[in-house]
Structure formats: structure tokens, C-alpha cells
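Exercise 3.2. Students should predict the tertiary structure of the chain below and write it as C-alpha cells, then compare their answer with the key that follows.

Predict this chain's 3D structure.
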Amino acid sequence: MTKPHLVNMNMFLEKGKPFPKKLDPDGKKGLVTTESAIGYSKYTARSNANEKTFEKVDFAPGGYYDYTSKRFGATRTFTNEGWKDSSQDIKQFRNYVAKHFQDDGDILWIPVQSYKDYTTANQYGLFNQEDYAEITKKSLERFFKYVGLEPNNMIWWMNYHNNKNHPHVHLAFLEKDKTRSKGTFTQEELVQYKRFILTEMKERERLILGTENEMIASFKNMDFERQVIKKNALELISSKQSSNINSLIFKLSEELPEKGRLQYGSPHMIPYRDKLDAIVEHILNHEKIRNEYESLKNTWIELDDDYSKTLNEDITNMVDAEDSKLRKQIANLVLKEIKNKTYVIDEYNELSVSKFAHELHNEESELPHHLENDNFNDDEDIKDVESLDGSLETPGHFIEWTDDYKLALSYLYGSKEQERDLLVAREMLAIESQKGNVLATHDLAKTILLLDEENGQETSFDLYQKSLEVFETLRSQNELNRDDPTKEKSYQYMLKYLSYRIGKMHLYGLGNEVDYEKAIRYLSNSDGNKYALYSLGSLYERGLGVEKDKDTAMNYYKEASDRGNPYGSYAYARRVENDNITVSQHYYTQAYTGFKEMLESSNDDQLHYKLGMILIDGKMGHTDIDEGIKHLNEAVIRNNDYAKVQFVKTVEKYELEEKFEQASKLKQELLKKDNQSMLYYEGFKLTKSEDIHELLEGIKYLKRIENHEEEDSVCYRLYKSYLDLDEEQELYYLTLSAGHDNEYALYNLAKYHEDNDNIEMSQSLYNKALNIYLLKANANGSDIFTNKRLGHMFEKGKGIDIDVNKALQYYLSAYDAGDTKSIFDTSRVILQNKMIKSYAFIEQELSSSSFTNDPNALYWRSRIYLDKDSEFYNVDKGIKLLNKASEFSDDPFIKQSADYYQNMKSNNGYSSGVLDSTLSLIKRSAKQNERLLERGREEYLEDGLEKEKRGKSL
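Answer key:
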């Protein structure tokens, strides 16, 4: 739920004292007088719409009263005495206020209630000035009592303003007889005021859902249309279907600063907003989006007209405000793609859509997981150092692995015999490039990028562009040898090699724009080049330049592996890991062996990083922490930040005391430079602490994550952190995370609305979460967590009609996947729904040796024997099982059940009333027990949240 935020509640005017600095930054207004708050005034409205900047008000000779009541966009004045409509009423009330603001020390509080936007406000039943007046009056009365101010001793007035992109209320209040000399309120008092407003909003929401269904339906439809547009816009941006839009984004990506937040609202983005706006305009007018956008605009206009009629005014801003919000959201989608380096020339980093994608190893603190990245790791680049068999010339240029070129590569990549030295590599490659060797020109571009020199991006691009032109010329030159029998072998080899090099440059956008279709065409002509096969697999897996086809992708990865590309083995292993652990271990072993062989000739940090994580994560079926940490340390020495993060996590997880000091220094280094993965890791760890100081420190780390409010799992972690700490922040981050379609957040937000009797909203959110879980279950049938939750949702009718058969299906899937406790859920469904034919199955499962003394198993078995319709019906055995269950359990419900059935059997002097009372107590305890079990289930499920959200990849 979006809540109002109270602006400047601690802002107040005190008679005889200077104005607050926010109202008088230059100190020119003098002291606060009666006229400062009361009387006729003019004011200068702020020139921009930044709500965080207080309007510059001329408080002399007029005052705040006229500022709130006479400014453009203000509606009628509502006071503690009711509405003031006539000029005479207003004059009398103004004099009344003046009478009580005469003495030095008198205080006038001047808060502002600002609501997010008209759409959100409307959803809570806030449509016109009367609605805002009612909610303000009720909230104020409760607030006055809370802070010790007598409501009958208070004078106050408010005006609802609608002249901006968001509705807001200007408020002022003072005491008739002064009892309070302190103007400021405590943080807790401010928070409580927000809670009072929130409570009133929730009540209005409940009422409006029952009385304004047509309006609510319009808002829901509007929200749906907006989501469709954003979804289509993201697909249009990421798939690069429009060459025009792609070109505009590419050009913008080259101009944007390398540092700072890539957010439309960031100050340093101001110089680029015109170009961003132009891109958004192109997107909204694309044939894929145009119709939906026009439909949404019509919806805004209709709602705007309804709003104006309700207000009996022409001053509303819904169309402009909603359109501006949508455009900003699309602009941020563009910037997010640029930030994720889909459009940026950068082939030397291991790239990913998720800034956390390399932190998938420590199940104690799994990090957020996003969809697969639309760009590519540079893993296979280092393979291009293997020797070229032959040479080819064209006037002024040639391609050949000369001795000087090989020596330059040894400095570029490093080896066991030769440490990496980029400066020496740059000098040697420059000399070789001047001789005309295009291989050196290409690698010189890469070296300059790695050195991060001034103007390095431009220089590198020019060199890449030159090398691409030469590669294409050489490929044309090679065609002259097509029909020469004596050069057939050389022709075929060069055709494959040059096709791969050209395809790869189109793939990464080196010396040109990214062009996946061209990349596929050239890579396909490389006729089995093991690196090309790996790249083709990546393209097919992501659906870039071709229709997404995971089966074809897997075939390419496997063929690359079969031809000796360890990255192909690694990719294939990752993608079969959930389905066949034996096969994945085999291919991880192949990858490990290949990486080790590569290490002999290329002492690369990424190789050490991957080798280390394969060993530490036990990808080959066994772990080797000592050897793994050695490889990580080698990568750390070479300044690999991913390795630094994993080094810290491994040392802490396995308590490697001899490495504590090094790990501590690395952690501080990473936190100091706001390494996103380390911020999350440390934030996650500390927010799990029972120490309040550590918890608050963890929250600070999570909030330092760039654009943390746009990371669904970060928002969700913050929601969990604020549980029982700050209800407002808890709900804020839960709502944000649910807004990002985080299924766990959707489920919990639904539960929140369910607990507050907002059933329609609750079921809608449950249904949305259910659909996501169903997709996950279809993608990975062995996912225990997802199966358990789906079973629960079908059993209880969360977001869908109750279907006990489907509930049983998903509980059994979780049980088959290895979660033995799911048999208890299975038993409950079968017994509570008297699926008598299945009694034999659960009796057999619960009788196994693994459940011999398990009180839950004994309890459910007893229910089988106590069911008189069961073929197993045997009261003595049922009671015996219940008594045994009570021996191994502290649960009073089990003991009460045993007593009940024993008494029922013997009727040992108990009246029917006592039996009924006992049974009622048992049933009541059963419900309490079920609630406790559900709470425990929630904790179990949420502990696995981050792992589920991130997947299992390095």
C-alpha cells in the first residue's frame, strides 16, 4: 500500500523567533509576527515541481493562511469549525486565529500531507476535497490525543491542493490556550501520525471496494494496460527489433557518464533527458505499442473527466501526471538496459543483467536473481590465443601468428612463466599493428580498454572498427582461393576462422553496433569452430537474432564441449544440473580439466575464479576448499572483484581462521567502494542478526545498493528486515517488491490484505503469485519450495478455487523430490477430505522406519485408525498411537486428542457437555496449531527465498 509521506511535520512558526531556515535561507524575513501567519499575502510559488523543495513564500505583510487558502489549485478551506466558504466566514476565522497567535512563544505548526499520485489516492477513496477533509479531520483528532494536545483546545485549517502531479493537503494548527512550548515532535510521533492516516485510508479502501466497483475496475484496467505497455517496451528494447531505436540507444550509451546513478530523475541525467525523451517517444509510437498507448491515454482522459466532474473544477492533472510517470518508467527501462551493458562496448568483463549474477554460491546468503542476461560473458575471448594455422595477406595488412605477436599475447594474458603486464603488451601490440598484423590491431583495442586510459573507449572503438574492416577484406580475399585445388585446405580454414572473428565482433558490437542476426550468419559459416558453437548456443538460449530455442542451444553447447571448448562443457553442465546431477558433474569435470589446461598458457584471473568456484561448490561431486581458496586468491591478486567477494564468503562460511585478516581487509575495501555484491552479502547477513545494532547496520548496507528500490529481492530482504521493527517501512518495501512481481512478496502482500479483510485485493494478489509459481513448477518440477506452496494455495483456495486433488498432486511432488515432511501435508489433505482409498498409501509411508518416533507421523496414523469408515478402523490402536505421539511431542493438541478419544471410548463419567467442550477445545487448538505450522512453513519457505530467486549458477 502506498502511503502519504508527511513533508516538514517539524516545520513550525514560533512568534517572536526567526523563521526556519528552510523558509528563510537568507535570513531576510526577520522575526515571526502575527501577520506572518495571518492576514493578506502574496507568495511566490516554486518554479519547479520537485516536492522535496519547500515553496518560497513571502510571509510579509501577509501570511501562511492566505498561502494555503488562496494559491492556484487550492480548494475551499476546511477548519476545526467546518467549511469556510464565504469571504465573511474566512475573515472571521482569520481574526479568530490571529487572536490566539499574539504572544511570543505561540506556535503554529504547518505540515504538508503529500500523496503519491491521483491514481493511488483514488484507489483509497480520495476523490475530492470532502474526502481529504474527512481523512484529515479524523487523523488529526487521533494525533492530538496521542501527543497530549487537547482536541477541543486546537484551532486548525486545511486546504486540498491539486495543482501538481500529485494531490496534497496544506495544514496548519495551533493551540487556543498554550500548553506546549516545544515545536518539534519526536520521530515516533511523526510515524504515528502517518499510521493514523494509513488507518483511515485502509478503511476508505474497504468501503470503496464495495461501493465504487466501476471506478475500481477502471483503475485496475488502467494498471493492466500500463503493465502491458512496459512489458512490450522492455521486449522491444532488449530484443533490438527496431534498428532505429537500437541506434538511438546505442548512441546515448556512448555519451552517458561512466559514474553516477543511471536514473531519469538523477540530477546528472539532466543533460541527456532530451535524448531519452526522444527514445521514449519512438518506443511509444512503435507499431507494437502504439495502439495500447492510445487506449491508455483515452482511459486517462475519461478518468480525468470523471475526476473534474467530481471536483466540480477543471483543475486536474491526471493525464499529464500519469503520462509523465509512464514515460519516466520507460526511460528507466532504457537506462537499465544500458547499465546492464547490453548496448555498451565492454568485452573484457564478465557481464550480466544482474549486478549480483556472480554471487550464486553461498546458500547462506543467496543474492537476487534476474532473467538470463541478453549479453555475453567474455569467457571464450582468452581462447583466441591458440595459434592460427597459416596466414593471409591483403595490401597493407596481413593475418599471422608471428613470434612478436605471440610474445605480446604472453604479456596480455600472462602465464605461469610470464606475469601479465598490460603496458608492455600495449607497446608490443602497437608495433605489430603498425606492421599491418590485424590480429595485433584487434588485441591492441582490447588492451587499451583494459588499461582504462583517457579517451580509451574512443581509441579502442576506432581500432576495433579498423580490424573489422580488415577481417572482412581478408575474408573477401580468401574467396579468390575457393576454386584453387591447391589452396582448398587453407581456404576452408581461413573461411571458418574469419567468419568466427567477424561474427564475434557483431555479437559484442566491437567496431560497430551489436547485430545479432549478422553474428548468427557469420558464426554459422564458421563450420564447427568450437568458440562459434558456444556463442551460437548463447544466442539461441536467449532468443537474440533468432527465436528462443533452448534445445538448439543445448545442442550447440554440447557440440562445443565435444570439440574441446571447456566453456561449452561448463554451460552444458549448468543447464542440466537440476535435471541430472550425474551428467552435470561429468561436464563440470570436463570444464575443470579444460580450464586447468588453459591455465598453462594463460594465467588469467577469470580462469582462477571459475576453477576456484567449481571446487568450492563441489560441482564435480566433491569439494576441495583448500585448493579452491588458492585459485580464488590468485584471482584476487589479479584484482578480480568477483573473486574478492567469494573469497570473503568462503572464508567466513568455512571459518578459515588463517584467512580472516585478509578477508576482513577485502570486505572493507569492497564495502568502501560500494561493491554491490558485497553490500548485499553483508546486508543480508546482518539483517538476519538478533542484535538490533547489526540489523540496522545491515539495513544501511542494503539501502546503499544502487537503485535498491528497483531490485525486487533487495526490497524483499528489506521488508523482512523491518518486520516487527517499523510497520510503515515493512509495508513500503513489501509493496515495492510485489510491484516487481516478486512471487514471495505478492504472496505476503496478499496475506496482509487478507488479514485486513480486503478479500478482493487479497485474492487478486494471490492469483498473480499463483501464476508465477505455476510457471516455476512447469520449468522445474523438482522444486520443493514451489510445490509446497502450490499445494498450500490449492488446499486453502488462495487466489484460486479450492482443489484438493491438485493440492495433493503438488504435496506429493514435493515429497517425491525429497521433502519427507510433505507426507504430513499429504496425510492432512487425504484424511480431512476422507480420501479413504488413499489411506493405505499414507499408512505405508508413515509406518516406515524414518518416521518411527515422529509425533506428526504417529498423529496422522492414529487418525487413520480412528476413522470409523476406514478399513483400518481400530480405536485401541488409534489411541495407542496418539499416546505414543504425546510422549515425543510437547504439543498440547496431541495430548488433548488422546484424552478426548480415551474418554469418548470409556465415557468415564464425563457428560456429553464436557465431551463437547473438550472437542471444541481440541478443534480450537488444532486451528492454533495449524496457524503455528503455517507460520513455521513461511519461515522455512522464506529462508530459501534468495536461492530460489537467483538459481544455481556461478
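Discussion points: The beta strands are 5-7, 12-14, 74-79, 82-84, 107-109, 112-114, 154-161, 168-175, 392-394, 397-399. Residues 195 and 949 are 32 Å apart (CA to CA).
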